[in-house]
Specification:
This protein is of the alpha/beta class and about 400 residues long. Helices cover about 30% and strands about 20% of the residues. The strands form three sheets. A seven-stranded mixed beta sheet has the order 5-6-7-8-9-10-11.
């Protein structure tokens, strides 16, 4: 099956008309996107958008051979003119199937939001799934056969991708293409980096893809360290890297701190951000956890793990530190970095970067700063990707 993307943007397009935001201002040239519309083998058009005929012409295609036009979501705004010779658009009722004379089979997929998804099987058996903006499949059956290609609102509904992965509809070789891209996505290379972390990619308007032929699926790093200062957005960045995956294990190393109201507010904010399918465990015993097989792990954070480790070895007492504490802490850090290196799970860890600020006034503060720097360096050495988050912006240090 040959697929031409006549547009890859949100229903209002990118940039949005008369929008002064930074993302719209940067959406020029190849980064400008018309509303998403898909042309399959020149015979099936999924979503009819303004200027579809001109978009097809720019991509070297024609709509004269279109035999069926299907809409995936309610279209707001003025009525779209149907080009001459193109059939009137319609929708397939949920869970029903349509067979075209061209040999394509189209099954309507029920969604959890207004709209209809379409699972298309080509004459040669290639399988494609197209989801409308802001929607995720409802009532997925388990297990499912992997699609060759999935086109979905990856940035707006990453949980849709997680649901598909949970039942096997998205596998390691599924080509996931992000569509319905709106002005809340970061411009330029940052969009590609975020999508790659979810195992997805974006393509420019007018691109033609062969369903089932693409093999260079983005590799999701198995080990990632996210560094940053206080309130820099490092935890949000770490969570974003796993929100398109099901059954993530969130490891909180800070405990509950009973009686600390401010800490309770912080914990509640983190929990509210996390997808409901994630599990949470509060522990600093990371080594056996990393040694076990299981779903992806998000550790938040290493700096609190270090506080617990220094407490346990008596690192705050100068005499204990000199006698045995320093050696014991080095051994704990070594065990942790070795566990990360040998772990078969996908691991994303968060840690504070405190060495660039004011020199602590106390000896214990300086000791903690130094040991955290050593821990971060040792952990980063075992990671395929290392990020530094500054003012909410992720800077790639490795990977």
């Amino acid at each position: 099956m040959e697929l031409t993307l006549l547009g890859t943007g949100a229903p209002a397009g990118l940039p949005r008309p008369d929008c002064p935001c930074a993302a719209c201002a940067a959406a020029l040239g190849a980064d400008a996107r018309a509303a998403t519309a898909l042309l399959l083998d020149g015979a099936l058009l999924l979503d009819l958008t303004p200027g579809a005929a001109f978009a097809a012409a720019r991509a070297g295609r024609s709509l004269t051979g279109v035999r069926q036009v299907l809409l995936s979501h309610p279209h707001d705004g003025p009525a779209v003119e149907v080009p001459a010779g193109v059939p009137q658009p319609g929708r397939v009722p949920d869970r029903q199937e349509l067979t075209l004379l061209t040999g394509h089979r189209v099954r309507a997929v029920a969604m959890d939001a207004p709209g209809t998804g379409y699972a298309v099987t080509g004459p040669a058996g290639q399988r494609l799934l197209y989801l409308p903006p802001g929607g995720a499949p409802a009532g997925l059956a388990e297990p499912a056969e992997p699609y060759d290609m999935v086109l979905a609102d990856v940035t707006g509904r990453p949980d849709a991708l997680a649901k598909l992965r949970a039942v096997g509809a998205v596998g390691p070789t599924t080509d996931v293409v992000a569509v319905h891209l709106d002005h809340d996505v970061p411009p330029g290379p940052e969009l590609g980096r975020r999508l790659a972390a979810a195992g997805a990619r974006a393509v420019p308007d007018g691109a033609t893809l062969s369903v089932g032929a693409y093999e260079d699926v983005p590799d999701v790093p198995r080990r990632t360290l996210v560094l940053g200062g206080a309130r820099s957005g490092k935890s949000v960045e770490a969570e974003r890297r796993l929100e398109a995956f099901p059954d993530v294990l969130y490891v909180a190393t800070g405990g509950s701190r009973n009686g600390d109201t401010e800490w309770s507010v912080r914990v509640a904010a983190h929990r509210e951000r996390r997808p409901g399918s994630w599990q949470t465990v509060e522990t600093c015993d990371l080594v056996p956890l990393l040694a076990r097989e299981g779903p992806p792990v998000l550790v938040d954070c290493l700096s609190l793990w270090l506080t617990d480790a220094m407490d346990s070895v008596g690192a705050w007492d100068d005499a204990v530190w000199a006698e045995r504490g320093e050696k014991a802490l080095r051994e704990r850090v070594r065990e942790l970095t070795e566990a990360v290196r040998s772990s078969r799970r996908t691991v994303v860890a968060v840690s504070n970067e405190v060495g660039s600020g004011i020199v602590p006034a106390t000896a214990s503060g300086r000791r903690y700063r130094d040991e955290l720097g050593r821990l971060n360096a040792g952990f980063a050495e075992q990671c395929e990707q290392v990020l530094l988050v500054v003012a909410g912006q992720a800077v790639v240090l490795r990977g």
